[in-house]
Amino acid sequence: MKVQVAIIGAGPSGLLLGAMLHKAGIDAVIIEQRSADYVLGRIRAGVLEQGTVEMLDHVGVRERMFKQGLWHDGFEIGYRNSHHRIDLKTLTGGKRVMVYGQTEVTHDLMDARSAAGAKTVYEAEDVAVHDFDTGKPRVTWRKDGAEHELSCDFIAGCDGFHGVSRRSVPENAIQTYEKVYPFGWLGVLSDTPPVSHELIYSNHARGFALCSMRSMTRSRYYIQCPLDDKVENWSDDAFFDELRRRLDPAAAEAMVTGPSIEKSIAPLRSFVAEPMRFSSLFLAGDAAHIVPPTGAKGLNLAASDVHYLANGLIEHYQEGSAAGLDAYSERCLRRVWKAVRFSWWFTSLMHKFPDDTGFGQKIQEAEIGYLLGSTAASTALAENYVGLPLEV
Ligand code: APR
Ligand code: PHB
Fold first, then answer.
1. Rounded to an integer, what distance in angstroms lies between the CA atom of residue 204 and that of residue 225?
2. 85 CA distance to ligand 1 centroid (A)?
3. Contact 40/110 with Cβ under 8 angstroms?
4. Domain for residue 361, yes or no?
5. What residues make up the domain containing 334?
């Protein structure tokens, strides 16, 4: 079997790339190790930058997103028994974000892909990438006991942090940068109305808390927890009691609780692999970088990688130009590092650090005071939160 582009992984990166290539008439197959249901069962963040919304609209995945997605013009910083609004729209000259779950984005992209008749292989075992430095790359896998091989011009490694693509690059060709944070997030999803119509990011002496949502009837909440904490340690009541303690009295009062429909703990990490291209192999999304969820940048960074990669491939096939593909890694990494910096900064500002001697807390207090009192500082937060512009 031969195809122009082999895409490894059917997460948001792989599916969005598949959609952009399909729209441009470039032939691609997606090879995914899990089942579609498994992929859809993962609960991830839910804030889309306007640029991400535009990309999804561009590939025709718009109906449910515009019907169910919630435009947010601002969010709240909870601090010292009160909350303070960051007016994204005013501070950025009209930009805003859309709250629409990553699960829904994935769902919409999967539906559009099957409606278009584009091929995705699910439940592929032992996926391996070969010969990407020779100009004749191949992908192999096993399914239902049979061996399969796909020849291609390019491989897009969209297979997430634990995928095979990045691991297949020789160690001396790749440099990685990593920071692991000394806490995790315990998240709960519940069919209850959200505390407020906007998100609340709360800095509290007991630890960070976030009130988010999926719709006006479904809430998503997080509290900072120790790295070695276990979901089993948290009944729903214990979770909501702790969440309430970390919110200002008005928000705590407004909270409606109900049984959790999902509860999980995720560690927080910043990670970047450089470069993002190895001859015919391109890494995109979580395969190349991870950010802590505090700035909600993971999915949006995946979308900007895919934008650069799809445009590079389109230039290659339609104009015979290598310029976009040659610029891919540097272009992505410039934007990636800015989002890594922002996510690290927002994480550092909002969490309680277990080894802090008191100095860190004083710096946080000074910085939050500055942030809330200075239009310049709030603008810097707002313009990063809505997403920095894409380079052309
Ligand atoms: N072979 C084939 N598929 C694989 C392999 C493999 N060896 N390893 C992993 N995969 C699949 C995973 O099962 C998953 O479906 O690759 C997909 C990667 O998807 P994600 O982890 O969601 O990564 P990505 O598509 O880059 O999405 C970007 O944004 O909000 C953030 O971290 C969040 O997932 C999100 C990310
Ligand atoms: C979420 O709704 O899951 C969410 C929202 C904002 C974040 C992180 C997660 O910063």
1. 13
2. 34
3. yes
4. no
5. 2-68+101-178+270-355
pLDDT given for residue 135 in this prediction: 86
- Alpha-carbon distance of 21 to 127, in angstroms, equals 22
How much is the pLDDT for 45?
Answer: 84
pLDDT of residue 392: 66
Farthest CA pair distance, the chain:
64
Those residues whose C-beta lies under 8 Å from the C-beta of residue 218, and which sit 6 or more positions away, are 189, 190, 191, 192
Residues of the chain with pLDDT under 70: 392
Q: Cα 246–347–370 angle (5° rounding)?
A: 80
- Annotated catalytic sites, by residue? 72, 201, 293, 297, 385
Give residue ranges with CB within 6 A of ligand 1: 8-14, 31-34, 39, 44-45, 102, 124, 127, 158-160, 162-164, 285-287, 298-299, 302
Establish whether residue 300 lines the binding site of ligand 2, counting it when its CB lies within 6 angstroms of any ligand atom: no
Whole-angstrom Cα distance, residue 30 to residue 5?
Answer: 9
Instruction: Read off the tokens for 74.
Output: 């601002």
**CA 35 – ligand 1 centroid, Å:** 12
Q: Is 390 helix (H, G, I), strand (E, B) or coil?
A: coil
| Long-range pairs for 242-246: beta carbons < 8 A, 24 or more residues apart | 242/206, 243/209, 243/211, 245/204, 245/206, 246/78, 246/202, 246/204, 246/206, 246/207, 246/208, 246/209
Task: Classify residue 57: in a domain, yes or no.
Answer: yes
Task: Tell me the best of 42, 210, 290, 386 to mutate to test the pocket of ligand 2, counting ligand atoms within 8 Å of each CB and taking the most.
Answer: 210
Residue 309 resides in a domain: yes
The residues, ordered by sequence, that sit 6+ positions from 197 with a Cβ below 8 Å of its Cβ are 216
Q: Residue 166 belongs to a domain with what CATH number?
A: 3.50.50.60
Closest-CA residue, ligand 2 atom 1, reads: 45
- pLDDT of 43 reads 80
Domain count across the chain: 1
CA angle in degrees (0–180, nearest 5) for 38-340-374: 125
Tell me the residue ranges of DSSP E strands in the chain.
2-8, 28-31, 47-49, 70-72, 75-79, 82-86, 97-99, 120-121, 125-130, 138-143, 146-157, 175-190, 200-203, 209-215, 218-225, 260-274, 277-278, 281-283, 289-290
Assess contact for 166 and 274: CB atoms under 8 A. no
Structural domain includes residue 367: no
Give the global pTM: 0.97
